[in-house]
Backbone:
């Protein structure tokens, strides 16, 4: 239960009451990388979900642990944000169970979780993903071929401080 316990601590440390109140360049960067990873994952494991909101229990399998009962999920009032947080917890529970697909995709939700940790969030409107005042067409086309983005804290901080484009 080491991965799940670490994931619970990480999710619990996020101040869910303030996400979306801040806009930063790193939020756009993180959302682009999340869309890239989600596109690749859904190409191989297409579960019933509304892209880009992956539901791990629909795409891979339901973990033995029922994460729905965790109090931290009840504190998240945005249903899409809650779904990503739940999937993050499910992914970590499946890793603890030795699920190879989960292990191979352990970093799938990292950009979204970092986005929440940095006070950001994204939402969908009219077929576009909206984040920090920017929009991105929601299309799986060409995302899989994109190069991975560096989402290290150093890169994200530099973006927010205007040091990178």
Residues:
């Amino acid at each position: 239960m080491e991965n799940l316990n670490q994931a619970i601590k990480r999710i619990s440390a996020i101040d869910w009451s303030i996400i979306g109140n801040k806009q930063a360049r790193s939020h756009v960067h993180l959302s682009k990388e999340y869309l890239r990873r989600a596109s690749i994952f859904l190409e191989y494991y297409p579960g019933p979900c509304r892209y880009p909101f992956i539901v791990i229990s629909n795409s891979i399998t339901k973990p033995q642990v029922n994460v729905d009962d965790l109090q931290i999920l009840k504190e998240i009032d945005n249903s899409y944000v809650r779904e990503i947080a739940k999937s993050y917890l499910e992914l970590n529970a499946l890793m603890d169970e030795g699920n190879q697909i989960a292990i191979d995709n352990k970093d799938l939700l990292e950009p979204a979780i970092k986005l929440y940790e940095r006070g950001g969030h994204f939402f969908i409107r009219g077929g576009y993903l909206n984040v920090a005042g920017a929009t991105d067409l929601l299309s799986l086309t060409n995302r899989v071929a994109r190069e991975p983005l560096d989402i290290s804290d150093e890169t994200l901080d530099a973006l927010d401080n205007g040091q990178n484009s």
About this structure: The chain is about 45% helix and 5% strand. The beta strands are 123-125, 128-131, 134-137.
